[in-house]
Design goal:
With about 375 residues, the chain is an alpha/beta fold. It has one domain: Purple Acid Phosphatase, chain A, domain 2. About 25% of the residues lie in helices and about 25% in strands. The strands form two sheets. Strands 1, 2, 3, 4, 11, 12, 13 and 14 form an eight-stranded mixed β-sheet that branches. A six-stranded mixed β-sheet has the order 5-6-7-8-10-9, with helices on one face. The chain is globular. Belongs to the CapA family.
Length: about 375
């Protein structure tokens, strides 16, 4: 009889323990021993917000008067040209300029019509804060194939990235990563002033190629920026072919399309492409040069604030006009880039009549009503 009672109690104990175990492991319930029986809150993680700024600048050119003025007797010093604009450039996460000259040590420094700058210009451009230089422009072949290839290597040696020219089998685009955002930068030119480049060494504007390149970089990047060197020189009005070309490239998947070559700044706009807002600048004009004709001394920089959560989008865009002054300082002539926004600050460098002109053009270049679509996202 005692054995029967003992067996019965053992069975009851097993049933009790099984019930406790089942209760404590019920899905969706607390598995701690507090006895609260409260369900755990399921926390959904928000996508990480990553933000960068991209800055683009117009044509960087060195004419003979600039080269002569920068000569110190032993070497060249171009750094004073960028002193006033440097704080804006170096603040950007990725700063891009159009390098419209060559570096060929086998030839003497020269300006127009065949540009060949002393290598010291790259010291100054790096010092100013630039990270990437586009080299696909009409002066890419000014000193021949050797000049083209040496320019690419010299840019690399100075810690910057060339985009648009190179050896035939090289990728002529760049994918630059900053703060977890991958930016693809592509560059193309309408031609090379009739000097034929070896096949594959200069990115020419060819819509099939551009589309193919965009497709190549799309799965490796978050944001695609296309730089185009095209447009009739010294004409401020956007031409019909430009509207068609730039917008078609936006429709191919570019997130921003930025132009250069006319040597005068043209309008910018926000273009709606397949539900995306694409920033387009039809010409940034000159960044620095010795050109003095009206409007050639005022260019623009474009600043894009790109934010990535699930995808990367422009959250703010700004056009920054710049004025190239020519001043005498310490017995030297200096071609210097100045922010046009606060031009009155430079009363010692820009006469009153010239400041009025800068203010007028500044207002024209920054009057972009549809840019608000970014700011009001």
């Amino acid at each position: 009889m005692k054995k029967t009672v003992s067996l019965f109690l053992s069975i009851l104990l097993l049933i009790y323990l099984s019930a406790c175990s089942a209760t404590n492991n019920t899905p969706g319930k607390s598995s701690d021993m507090s006895g609260s029986g409260q369900e755990k809150d399921i926390v959904k993680e928000e996508p990480v917000r990553r933000e960068i700024t991209i800055l683009t600048a117009g044509d960087i050119m060195f004419h003979n008067p600039q080269i002569k003025a920068a000569y110190t007797g032993k070497t060249y010093n171009f750094k004073p040209s960028f002193e006033e604009i440097k704080p804006i450039i170096e603040k950007a996460d990725i700063a891009i300029g159009n390098f419209e000259t060559t570096i060929n040590p086998d030839k003497k420094p020269s300006g127009y019509p065949t540009f060949n700058a002393p290598v010291e210009v790259l010291d100054a451009i790096k010092y100013a804060g630039f990270d990437v230089l586009t080299t696909a422009n009409n002066h890419a072949m000014d000193t021949g194939t050797k000049g083209l290839l040496n320019t690419v290597e010299a840019i690399k040696e100075h810690g910057m990235i060339p985009v648009g020219t190179g050896k035939k089998d090289d990728d002529k685009f760049a994918i630059v990563e900053k703060n977890g955002v991958n930016v693809a930068i592509l560059s193309y030119t309408y031609g090379t002033n009739g000097i034929k480049a070896p096949d594959g060494m200069v990115n020419l504007i060819d819509k099939d190629k551009i589309k193919s390149d965009i497709e190549r970089v799309k799965n490796r990047s978050d944001f695609v920026l296309v730089m185009l060197h095209t447009g009739t020189e010294y004409i401020r009005k956007v031409e019909d072919f430009q509207y068609a070309l730039f917008r078609e490239i936006a429709d191919m998947g570019a997130d921003a399309v930025i132009g250069g070559h006319p040597h005068v700044a043209r309008k910018s706009e926000v273009y709606s492409s397949n539900g995306r807002n694409v920033f387009i600048s039809y010409s940034m004009g000159n960044f620095i040069s010795n050109q003095t004709a009206k409007y050639t001394d005022i260019g623009t920089m474009v600043e894009l604030r790109v934010v990535k959560t699930d995808t990367a989008k422009i959250e703010d865009a700004r056009v920054i006009p710049v004025y190239r002054s020519i001043i005498k300082q310490g017995g030297r002539t200096i071609h210097q880039v100045l922010p046009a926004e606060n031009i009155d600050k430079y009363s010692d460098k820009v006469p009153v009549s010239r400041r009025s002109y800068v203010k007028q053009v500044y207002g024209e270049l920054t009057d972009i009503k549809d840019i608000e679509v970014f700011k009001n996202r």
